[in-house]
Amino acid sequence: MMRSMSSNWNATSLSVATIFMVLSLLFGSWLARLPAIQLSLGLGESALGFALLGLPIGAFMGTQLSNWLISKIGTGVSTFYASLLFSCSMLLPAFVTDGISLFIALTIIGSLNGWMNVSMNTAAANLEKNWNISIMSTCHGMFSLGAMIGSAISGFLATRGVGFVEQQYFLVCVMILVLLMVLSSLRKVPNGTSEKQKMQWPDKAVWIYVTIGFFVMMGEGAIADWSAIMLKAELNANLFLGSMGFAGFSLAMAIGRFSGDHLRTQFSGLKMVVIGCFIGCFGLLLAASNWTIYVSILGFFIAGVGLSIVVPLLFVLAAQQSRQAEVGISAVATSGIIGYLISPPIIGLVGEHVGLPLSFIGIAVLIGMVGLLGWISQKAYTFTFLVKKKI
User: What's this model's pTM, rounded to 2 decimal places?
Assistant: First the structure.
């Protein structure tokens, strides 16, 4: 039984939640300036697309090395150094001169992002396991909140004439000060039970969560990259209403994640994952219905409500079902990155032939199918438990 919500938070758990916000705030502030960076470098869409591939390529490498690094230096220390190096790396895009240098910079950023991602999720999972608390979903809520704050700060500074270089220096220095403030608390994060080890495959029980994470993150990637385009192309939405699909989705993600830890005290993690997938499936089907602009925006909001709780819970379940928590978390993080990476080009390719609404319907069906797979897995687990108990 998890402790009450008020007892979940102390200096250590708050420091871990802060790391989630540091990552997304810096990343969100950079994404908000991406169109200006593209223009200043004179990159076409294909050249920019190639440069952006550095992020997932680097993240894949970082997640693969992360569990080894965590076992070498400890979870809390790993979280601090990964966060510190990632923060410093966010200065690199301010000094790129062409597409190749941007690709190299984003590969470095992606690798540190992957290491930081696994470290901070492992820290949250270890706190939950060792202190019998529930914080993972709220930590991911801090991530969603940080992305919105970072984008807002970047937009505000841009309207005030603050250049990208000055912005990055300011934000990076602030984040480094924040990291130094929470360092002593991060050192108190308990380590996992694993011995120092090389990279390894996750336990068999984790693969169900890896599969669900892959398709759910495909959905998140599709909404992030194509929701505004679909609303404009299919429903003639203006720029403001076109942006409301992803804005509504992001808002729902933040609300859902801040509520998730309380819901976990009422329902099992796997049951919530299943329910979240089904709600997300329904929301995407509604968004793709093209009845009206407002119905589609509502659909994206509902999809955000459902999908918001899935990924944080997958990290928790993977950590619980793994002999080494960081291995399970790394597997879920890697599958999510791959799903998020391949979704936008697949949507574009399929949408060119059958239309964006049918592409979104396909993603919705896949999410519904993995939700059904999770439901079958839950029923099988319950049946096995009852049989063993009877014996």
Answer: 0.77
